[in-house]
């Protein structure tokens, strides 16, 4: 009992049910290290609580598994703060200087009157992602369009579909954010970002990172060097509204240039790490199902108009400005985020707080909402929860009930709704439309083999595929040999 009090884990009767481990204080930590996000699924399958407490060394971790609790958590965003953790995680992950760390963590949750770099930065990010949306999407489709011209010129290309999507959507997304001097044009940096994200747990722990997480450490430092050169050469001045706004805001707050480069290395997680697997699964689920492919071709064909160039060759114009208004396409993207979900929304409990008039949450504890628990909740999603249903998000009701507002966590919700949602959705759906109209993709083995989910990366909300997906990409008959242009802005 005394030890419990010293370690701060003595249960209060009003707290969510405590689940003890066989090895006191470190058992759950070992479980998380061994099973990663699957650990929460194992526990929730065993105990069936809407929310439970894991006593850990130095405190407790609350785990939420019920979709109905997500909206109340999100409503109380100051008491249960994402921004507080965002500030703290950025400092640790990016290895920011003490000076920058102080500026970034000061009033990060925005609970006090006065300045907050995190909150002000987030407001500016949202504004920039609205003002700069069309131009970012235009840059994105121009970049990937050029890559597709190359695919067509090769006539028949054999690739691992994941590698192709990963490298090309990485170029298109980072190019749209950072402009012509985009540091991620260097493939070493793109590889470095993956290693950095895969080692993020060890880097967050901060114990001998260069020895215990050498790949992630080296990856991060190569990105930091890339961004130092980019900013020194004024690369951001020809980049998007987003990068311009971010540099302006960080500079005004007094963040030194090296720390801005470190900050931007961490931002790679938000910009790229979720976007690439989401694009892969959206393309995979369309091409691997003949019915879905036929429907998507039929729905995207009206976006295509054909004229001729001055030399008489066909000129194909694909207009993706309204692509987010095609329900089946949006549904496929959302279902990809649901079905392959990973990761967790993390919140810091800033004060003793009673959630949903029932559960006492203690100040200075952490709360996690594992996305997979919410996305595979049978009562919410129905009997078909374990199958991929391309049109799931076109239905408004499941079993006569509308899923609660927090039940889809793909882009978060409330004040923490992903500011990149519209940009990522348009660019990914544009890739799908460009691929289905222009190419046939067939598996090299003759039939599609599901590659499975790689659930090891704890920093993403969607799994990458576990196995390679070898395919042949060929231009579709009848549409080859022309010039293609893409319209994402007025
Ligand atoms: C398919 C791609 C993407 C997915 C699935 C995704 C997912 C998410 C999710 C789930 C959250 C909420 C986290 C939480 O509540 O704990 C979030 C927040 C965020 N996302 Fe995205 N994101 C994507 C693309 C992007 C892009 C392209 C950008 C930037 C250009 C971006 C920037 C951010 C930022 C800055 C936040 C933090 C919001 C806040 O602190 O209030 N994301 N994203």
Automatic annotation (TrEMBL):
One of its GO terms (molecular function) is monooxygenase activity. Its cofactor is heme. Keywords: Heme, Iron, Metal-binding. Pfam families: p450. The keyword Phosphoprotein does not apply. Heme binds at residue 418. The keyword Zinc does not apply. InterPro entries: CYP450_monoxygenase_sec-met (IPR053007), Cyt_P450 (IPR001128), Cyt_P450_E_grp-IV (IPR002403), Cyt_P450_sf (IPR036396). PANTHER family: P450, PUTATIVE (EUROFUNG)-RELATED. Belongs to the cytochrome P450 family. This is Cytochrome P450. It comes from Amorphotheca resinae ATCC 22711.
